[in-house]
Write a structure and sequence with these properties.
single chain; mainly alpha; Tetracycline Repressor, domain 2; 10 helices
């Protein structure tokens, strides 16, 4: 059964405002403007309701991030701006919203405990969509990969990096997140270090490791 968007929005706000552990289904129902019976019509328990907010949030940010990337491309932005902007919508919007909650750590921990399958599914779908978009950038000459590198690998590294930034300690302030995504993307795309005499041996070792993983 489809849950109306206003109900999902109020449900998400309830968890952000009150955390997870102390909320009951009765409390959630009241905060969402529903009767307890009405809430049970949609969800059988609190965990199911929480999982629904995580799934909805991932679906929303995945769609919005790809739309943002396409809009930046249409506006004539450079590839670094496009990729950093896309990552900021996908990973940054949720992180900034969560950072405003006094229960941020509790909600983050609960998401990893009870929603890992949703998070893995969302990451897989996003990275597939991201790779397809990246291939368009390559096909139209906005990005050229060096020999031995694949679009899927670049997408994985960018996504891993963005997720890592979201878990940085000490926690980043909300206004630092977009800049950190950009610098990470810049480092992956163009590098921070100039090649030295170690570079050929380092690259050869990377090739050997990649071959071993694919064997």
């Amino acid at each position: 059964m489809t849950v109306r968007e206003p109900v999902m929005r109020r449900l998400s706000e309830a968890f952000l405002d009150h955390g997870y552990d102390q909320l009951t289904m009765s409390g959630l129902a009241k905060l969402c403007g529903l009767t307890r019976r009405g809430l049970y019509h949609h969800f059988s328990n609190k965990e199911e309701a929480f999982r629904a907010t995580i799934r909805a949030g991932n679906d929303r940010t995945r769609a919005e991030s790809l739309a943002a990337g396409r809009q930046l491309l249409a506006d004539g932005a450079g590839v670094l701006d496009i990729l950093a902007g896309l990552l900021d919508v996908r990973y940054g919007n949720t992180r900034r919203r969560l950072s405003q909650s006094p229960h941020a750590q509790e909600l983050n921990d609960q998401a990893f405990r009870s929603c890992r399958d949703i998070m893995v599914e969302a990451a897989t779908q996003f990275q597939s969509d991201f790779a397809a978009f990246m291939m368009e950038l390559v096909a139209h000459g906005h990005l050229a990969l060096r020999p031995g590198y694949a679009v899927e690998e670049l997408v994985q590294l960018l996504s891993d990096g963005a997720r890592g930034i979201n878990q940085t300690l000490p926690t980043l302030s909300p206004n630092q997140i977009a800049y950190r995504y950009r610098r990470m993307s810049e480092a992956i795309l163009y590098g921070f270090a100039a090649p030295t005499h170690d570079a050929p041996a380092d690259q050869a070792q990377s090739i050997r490791m990649a071959s071993a993983l694919s064997a």
